[in-house]
Amino acid sequence: MIDNSAPADPHLTDAAAIACVRAYALLATAQTDGQAVRTGSTTRIVTGVPMALLNGVFHTDVPADPQAVAAQIRSESFGDLPWSIQVRGRDTDPLLEKEAGAHGLGQRHDITFMTRDLSDADAAFRPDDGVVVRPLTGTESAMFLRLVAAGFEAPQEIFARFATPAVLDHPAMHAYVTEVDGIPVASSFGVHLDGLVGVFNIAVPPEHRRRGYARTATAAVLRAARIDGARAAYLHPTPAGLPVYLGMGFRTAEHWTAFSR
Question: Are 23 and 43 in contact (CB under 8 A)?
Answer without folding.
Answer: no
